[in-house]
Design goal:
Blueprint (H helix, E strand, L loop, with lengths): L2 H14 L3 H5 L1 H11 L3 H28 L20 H7 L3 H4 L14 H14 L9 H13 L3 H9 L10 H4 L14
Length: 191
């Protein structure tokens, strides 16, 4: 069995298994391995590490695309000097994303043009980069879509959408669970 046929078979197997990045990096990895003579496990670790890295990058790009952010500015681009009243320590605390793991809400309130949307999107982007899913919408769009869904009998499906994948039922705000928030008169949210 020749080296070339083994090489082609390995590339074919990698491609068949959907390991495109490993398949593309196989030739340079083999050349480096011939020179450096790494252990088999080390060689595989490097080759598969490249595949894992490529997969993580594709997943991040997909989450960012599906989030529908109006811009792609990072938190580091926020101009704190333009808003001297903004508590930088609080923003730094929010940037740790502890509020996400605690299932807490963040509410940004203020007049137009002070950077609320940019700050919210930057925090959401940071969460998406950390592996969470995010979705950008306006309050008006949220109300319109939810009201329309309730009128069409799709309240539960819409709540599942807003809750995101992996959750069987939307966690409604406390006011909704107490009956103070209903989708439309005559219709009850799922409890």
């Amino acid at each position: 069995m020749s080296k070339d046929s083994s090489y082609q078979r390995v590339r074919s197997h990698l491609s068949y298994l959907g390991l495109g990045a490993a398949s593309e990096r196989l030739a340079p990895a083999l050349e480096a391995a011939e020179q450096k003579k790494p252990a088999y496990a080390e060689f595989l670790d490097r080759l598969l590490g490249a595949e894992v890295e490529a997969t993580e990058q594709r997943r991040l790009e997909r989450r960012l695309r599906l989030a529908g952010f109006p811009h792609q500015k990072a938190l580091e681009q926020f101009d704190f000097s333009a808003q001297p009243g903004l508590d930088r320590k609080l923003v730094d605390e929010l940037a740790t994303l502890r509020f996400v793991s605690e299932h807490s809400n963040v509410l940004l309130i203020g007049p137009p043009g002070i950077g609320k949307t940019m700050l919210a999107v930057a925090l959401a982007r940071k969460a998406v980069e950390a592996g969470y899913r995010g979705y950008y919408t306006t309050a008006a769009d949220l109300v319109a879509r939810t009201s329309k869904a309730a009128a069409e009998g799709r309240w539960q499906a819409t709540m599942r959408f807003w809750a995101g994948p992996g959750r069987r039922r939307a966690r409604l705000p406390a006011a909704a669970r107490r009956g103070r928030l209903a989708p439309l008169p005559g219709r009850q949210p799922p409890l």
